[in-house]
Amino acid sequence: MILLLGLALVIFAILMISNPTFGMFNIIIWTSMAFFFAGVYRISLALRLRTLKKRMDHES
Known about the structure:
mainly alpha
């Protein structure tokens, strides 16, 4: 499994080096996906913390 992932990474790197447009769009897509999922995670965490605070205020 690790060997296959290593080969995939090498092929991916060759594609990015040989075609800069592919590399540019790839970086943009991965960065935007990371920001999107980080935002979704923060919203989820904020909602959980809000319900926890309400529950703690109700108990005290």
